[in-house]
Amino acid sequence: MAYSSYLLIVVGFVLLMMGANWLVNGASGLAKRFHVPDLVIGLTIVAFGTSAPELVVNLVAACTGSSEIALTNILGSNIINILVILGVAGAICPIASQASSRRFDIPLSAWAGFAVLMLALITPEGGGVNRLGGVFLLVFFGLFMWVMIRKAIKGDGVDEDEEFKAMKAWKAILMVIIGLVALVLGGDLIVDSAKTIATAWGVSEYVIGLTIVALGTSLPELATSAVAAFKGNSDLAIGNVIGSNIFNVFFVLGISSLISPLPAYEGLVIDALMAGGSSLLLLGFVSTNKEHKLLRWQAIVFLLIYAVYLYTRL
Which of 174, 202, 208, 289 is buried most, with the most CB atoms less than 10 Å from its CB? Predict the structure, then answer.
């Protein structure tokens, strides 16, 4: 049973990535057909699509009572985004940071991790994130989107180079439907397989959530950042990763906790501190050199920190 679960979880991740891609392409093509500006498409559809794997896995986990997977998937993904994805990309090629990221996005990513910690400590019924906490996170997400839209209108630090092509309505709708089906099937396979693997290994679900599930849902960011670094075009890596972290906590975790309250698990405090602390460390690194870059030695420090963290959590 356990061996088939390894295959099924891989199939689940493939469906998840393909589904997110189809959903984004179909929705973007449909929006462009109705003359929605490229900038709006990039800020909404594409941004939401980046966090679609985490969202679907969390929705499935929340609906099936696997709260440990729901929480650790988000915290684990955010930790991996900073320490592993930027660690790998930065070790290949130093990564530049934008001034807007240093002033606003990275501090907000740090606050995201500490917000989960705060909610876990003040929430009654054993801690975690309850429905009221979910509303709190979604309010912050709304504020974030408002700021992003204002920045987009002003043209402050927003990439306007991406152009989206209109698509025939029937084709776009079909891609959206296929994408949604693939996402749901993939998320269901991942959660079910993660439970089976956790049982076979004799470990808690949170261990699988922090490692296999979190890494799997972060694969798009890892692949994109690594390829960009190899091509010497990694300038947007920090912005993309930080944006994903913000979406993960304030939107994905907010929605998940509204569906089903997510109680605390063993090690939640450590994981939330790591999620917030890694963003603070990134801010310190890119703010202490004249070029405002994540340097190779700093990226290697990220990878070493993650290795030590993972060793202590397993």
Answer: 208
